[in-house]
Write a structure and sequence with these properties.
Helix content: over 70%
Number of domains: 1
Low-confidence stretches: none
Order of helices and strands: HHHHHHHHHHHHH
Shape: globular
Largest sheet: none
Structural class: mainly alpha
Length: 276
């Protein structure tokens, strides 16, 4: 792929990963709308690794607490003592619980080839509209009395089960987990925060599998392409996270819903004319 194509893919990934508008859906649309060769899952994974670095850096206080919790869970006493009685002593396990469903179903998708088979424009269009409307309903009807301090096993599991739907292109991992969080009564800021922290193990797991595939390919060009995409995705994702968190301090998610619905309608129109 050309450097220009890699830059476009990285910008799309960085901007859309943590906004509730589906990064995977936009990445899958690039070849359909431009005529470029499908970049495949390996470049997608590289882009996601870049956004993983962004969320780790942006939420560095949470990253430190969760890292200590993970080390403590492995039996290292000083680390466990450092987070005893803090939010992170429980939050770590809630994130683990919420991640398990996606790991199981994601491995099944990869083993059967379903992950590539459903990267289709009409799937993206329908998912964009349907799950956009669900986001609107949840955001309007959801109470705002809960913060991330109120997270527990049941809501964590329900958000994790909702995240499985993000394996469908166009759904949006951020969008569906924020939808679930809002439906369960979490305020917008903390619904978004938990969603982004939940991306850490999910993207990490996908990244490990992707890196394994890159190593097995033995293609040095893929490594170069992956490095470019990962670096640019990290920078743009940092900016996108900052903008989203500031936006949610004083506004609803309606603007993202409108975008999703319009995108879906446009895609169906392009499909109908044979352009996609």
């Amino acid at each position: 792929m050309s450097v220009f194509q890699l830059i476009i893919l990285a910008l799309i990934q960085g901007i859309t990963e943590f906004l509730p508008i589906s990064s995977s859906g936009h990445l899958a649309l690039v070849p359909a709308l431009t005529g470029w060769q499908d970049q495949g899952n390996l470049i997608d994974v590289a882009a996601h690794i870049g956004t993983l670095a962004a969320v780790l850096l942006y939420f560095r206080t949470d990253t430190k607490g969760l890292t200590l919790a993970a080390i403590g869970a492995a039996g290292v006493t000083p680390a466990r003592r450092a987070i005893d009685g803090t939010l992170y002593s429980k939050l770590f396990w809630y994130l683990v619980i919420a991640t398990i469903p996606t790991v199981i179903v994601g491995l099944a998708f990869k083993a059967t080839g379903l992950d590539d088979a459903i990267r289709l424009p009409h799937v993206i269009a329908a998912s964009s509209i349907v799950f956009g409307i669900l986001l609107y309903v949840a955001d309007k009807r959801g109470a705002v009395q809960k913060s991330i301090d109120n997270m527990a096993i049941k809501p964590a599991l329900l958000i994790g089960l909702a995240q499985v739907l993000a394996l469908i292109p166009g759904t949006s991992r951020a969008g569906i987990t924020m939808t679930a969080g809002r439906w369960l009564g979490f305020n917008r800021i903390d619904a978004a925060r938990f969603s982004m922290l939940l991306s850490i193990p999910t993207i990490f797991a996908a990244g490990v599998l992707g890196i394994k595939d890159i190593i097995e390919s033995g293609n040095a060009v893929i490594w170069q392409d992956a490095a470019i995409v990962a670096g640019l995705s990290c920078v743009t994702a940092m900016a996108a996270i900052h903008i989203l968190m500031k936006w949610l301090e004083h506004a609803t998610m309606t603007i993202f819903v409108i975008y999703r619905v319009l995108l879906g309608i446009l895609l169906f129109a392009l499909i109908g004319t044979g352009l996609v």
